[in-house]
Predict the 3D structure of the following.
Amino acid sequence: MTTTGRLLGSGKEAEVFEYGALALKLYRSAASKASSFREAANLSILERLALPTPKVHAIGEFDGRWGVLMDRAPSCCFADPFVSTAGRASLEDMAQLYGRIHEKPGDGLPSLMARLSARIRRAEHLDSSSRNRLLAQLESLPDGDRVCHGDFHPWNIHGSGQGFMIVDWLDACCGNPLADVCRTYVLLQCDAGAGNGLCRSLRLGHRIGGQRHSRLASPDCRRPADGRRCKRK
């Protein structure tokens, strides 16, 4: 009988362990059962799109925690050279992976606009005026129909060359790729200006959904509305 092995990685939402030749992602929260089924459903949809994602093998309860049994990602992480060069590592591979994601139709995935709207409505410490302003701004933005990862950054990219695997698809949605890239830009602004490096890579003729990424120079992409600093997983 296969048993849970050593810890491979951890984040705010989950921990990942060895499980034979596979990886077992166990969620931390009380909503772990719902999270397990949500990410497994997302990965099942993405599997038919031939994206470099882990294949789901099982969903279940393991030692009292719900999780997803999936293909194990390569041990090397894109974040390793990224950190060692203070964010100056070549981001062309990352930009190309992003392009592959955003070329794919997001049919079957949750709506990004609906998710953002729900989060604004649930957000604590927002007064009515700010909430209404944010909802109005969201409503004015263009929607989309492409696959969006929802948390794309170097710590969620494993492997190298032709062997890349992109992990952590819990927040995958169907929406506008520019919104997805703006989130990555905000996350990477915490890493020695790496967000600017990613934008330069994306502007080298790279297109997502037919829209050029030069628009990422907009200040609106640079920081969350509440001014919080981002945290790496």
Notes: The two ends are 31 Å apart (CA to CA). The longest helix spans residues 32-47.
